[in-house]
């Protein structure tokens, strides 16, 4: 405890770090206040609440703003959708690949395209949000005027959330967009925690304590999954510069993450899991089989739902890892910079070796990721409340752990630059970007 207090003092002793932390807190408070501002013309008491499926997931990410018909009702989700589209385009379309390789100017062009695409997606989603989630009974003004004004306000709200995220990245701590998502998720934790405690009561105190212990071990497992890497040694040959000065000859490491795909496989799989119930609902009146399928895939605790969900996550993990990490590109970069893997010839053999290693570590990583995704279903079957069970795994927990670790790494770097003792005994948060690591292209 004494060391923790000392670390907090050191953090606030660094003026730049203190300013960044205060800026981050200020922007996050503005974001949370905006999630309670209801769209003009809406009666909040008449709103329906989305509790499951992809809509429930969106509401979790947005900290309740989706259910509140807030001016931040869509939050930064359209921006994330636009970013995913641009990321896939930079892999599949040569024009965007060339743009990405242009350095800072290319990244600025991609950012501008992402912003324009975000506006287009927000306008489309805004119409669907107003017509699909806000009942007409809750609208107190002319519906046509309400639809047009609300779509404009929702678009402005999304752009403002983007601006907050960019400001946090530039003048605060951590990645701004990820911070906004994490705050939205965490904002629902106190209510879920208190609700679970009250539901259990004094008679179920032991069961509640066991839930907390189980949650602790699940979080530790997710931390290990997030931080786990396979370090491949890279040797650089010595080179002579200017006829006399030798440089190079260093050994560094190429860190390949066990879970290189992050939370994207779960997001993709969860989006697809929404389709069976939606399609089955179309024929549910005329077919008993369709009604049965719709009922089964609307229940996230059913074994059919979780089996298909897990298989999709495993498939998407391999797919997303394959399109984001290119062994051929890494092999070419190593060869160009005079680096090689000891015992492996540069070129084709290096590419095959990296591909083999990546496949081996992705397989257990995909199974563990699938297991983490379906833990909330097991928690619900074990008697944990629906709201509290969502924090036992899935996208929410992975995002929270990833953002917290990234933020800790940035704080750690400021402490080390200020010649203060780091938060960890080793002086570096495990999994951070240390000097003996090289980035994966």
UniProtKB/TrEMBL annotation:
InterPro entries: SecY (IPR026593), SecY/SEC61-alpha (IPR002208), SecY_CS (IPR030659), SecY_dom_sf (IPR023201). The keyword ATP-binding does not apply. The keyword Protein transport applies. It is found in: Cell membrane; Membrane. It comes from Aureibacter tunicatorum. Pfam families: SecY. Component of the Sec protein translocase complex. Heterotrimer consisting of SecY, SecE and SecG subunits. The heterotrimers can form oligomers, although 1 heterotrimer is thought to be able to translocate proteins. Interacts with the ribosome. Interacts with SecDF, and other proteins may be involved. Interacts with SecA. It is a multi-pass membrane protein. NCBIfam families: 3a0501s007 (TIGR00967). The central subunit of the protein translocation channel SecYEG. Consists of two halves formed by TMs 1-5 and 6-10. These two domains form a lateral gate at the front which open onto the bilayer between TMs 2 and 7, and are clamped together by SecE at the back. The channel is closed by both a pore ring composed of hydrophobic SecY resides and a short helix (helix 2A) on the extracellular side of the membrane which forms a plug. The plug probably moves laterally to allow the channel to open. The ring and the pore may move independently. This is Protein translocase subunit SecY. PROSITE patterns: SECY_1 (PS00755). Keywords: Cell membrane, Membrane, Protein transport, Translocation, Transmembrane, Transmembrane helix, Transport. GO terms for biological process: intracellular protein transmembrane transport; protein targeting; protein transport by the Sec complex. The chain crosses the membrane at residues 21-42, 71-93, 113-131, 143-165, 172-190, 202-225, 260-283, 303-326, 361-382, 388-408. One of its GO terms (cellular component) is plasma membrane. Belongs to the SecY/SEC61-alpha family. SUPFAM superfamilies: Preprotein translocase SecY subunit.
